[in-house]
Amino acid sequence: MRHHILLPTDFSENAWSAALYAIRLYAKVPCTFYFSHAWTFVNTGSRTYISPSYIDQLQNTSKEQLETLKERAKFVSPNSEHKFESIFSEDYLTASIKTAIQDNAIDLVVMGTKGATGAKELLLGSNSVNVIKKVKLCPVLLVPYNYEYATTDRMAFATDFKRPYGDEIRPLLSLAKLQKSDLEILHISGPDDLTEKQQNNLNALTQHLKDQPHNIHWIPEIGTKEEIISAFIEENNIKLITMINYTHSFLEYVLNEPVIKKLGYHSPIPFMVIPHQS
Fold it and tell me: InterPro entries this protein is in (predicted)?
């Protein structure tokens, strides 16, 4: 099966770092990667008149940069069944991503975000937050700047068991199978604290995972959820963490919290956000 991966880019090394991670993540399978650039004109100089030819020149420069990215990616790709395409859009970022997903049957969007203070952490900037909140058509994988790809043999799925699990589980299982990864289910609370509804959802999740190696971890709620998740990642050598973006969930709280918006939610590893399929 061929995978279709969207790689939004602003031509920064940060965006290239995420693209390189995606190429290595899908190194062993047929895959088409789409470099997409949302072009908008910003008059940073003192020009009072902008000629159409000047706009054309700027657009052509961006299109040439997309072609250069494709060639750079072909050079580093280890798989002859990797294909690289480019998408130039004059829409805003989120609109361009939505269109690209629909037009190209995209399975996953992979984006880079800058690490805070040079550390290997993920900092959710305004672009990342907007994409997560507004793009509900497929999962989004956020990659810390300069994150070195390593075999993703342990993935974590943080969940509260409060809602039934449906099609949104498929991307998680697909990636775990692709990477031959064990799946570590993280729940902040104890097994005796589950409601009947949560227990039923846990039972259903276990059925979804019957062919997938997995473990369930019950973590006492000591400290903030951010601290608990960060400690779990470090202590269990987790290589990628996943959450489903439900309404009124912990992830939505993180995205809407003013302090988090300013300082960023820090993750030392790639972070996949799966939209809830209502």
Answer: Rossmann-like_a/b/a_fold (IPR014729), Universal_stress_UspA (IPR006015), UspA (IPR006016)
Q: How far is CA 75 from CA 6, 82, 94, 139, 145, in A?
A: 18, 11, 29, 27, 21
Reported as type and span, the H/E element at residue 251 is helix 250-256
> Quick one: pLDDT band at residue 18, thresholds 50, 70, 90?
very high
Lookup: tokens for 201: 């959802």
- The 10s digit of each residue's pLDDT in 76-92 is 999 999 999 999 998 88
Classify strands 240-245 and 154-158 as parallel, antiparallel or unpaired. parallel
pTM score above 0.85: yes
| Closest-CA residue to 150 (of 234, 34, 27) | 27
Q: Which residues of 36-72 are buried (b: 16+ CB within 10 A; e: fewer)?
A: bbbbeeeeeeeeeeeeeeeeeeeeeebeebbeebbee
Q: Name the DSSP letter for residue 114.
A: P
Segment 91-111 shows an average pLDDT of 94
92 to each of 61, 125, 181, 223, how far by Cα in Å?
18, 16, 36, 39
- What is 1-149's CATH superfamily? HUPs (3.40.50.620)
Q: What is the CATH number of domain 150-278?
A: 3.40.50.620
Q: Indicate the helix (H) or strand (E) that contains 6.
A: strand 3-8
Strand partners of residue 271: 142, 241
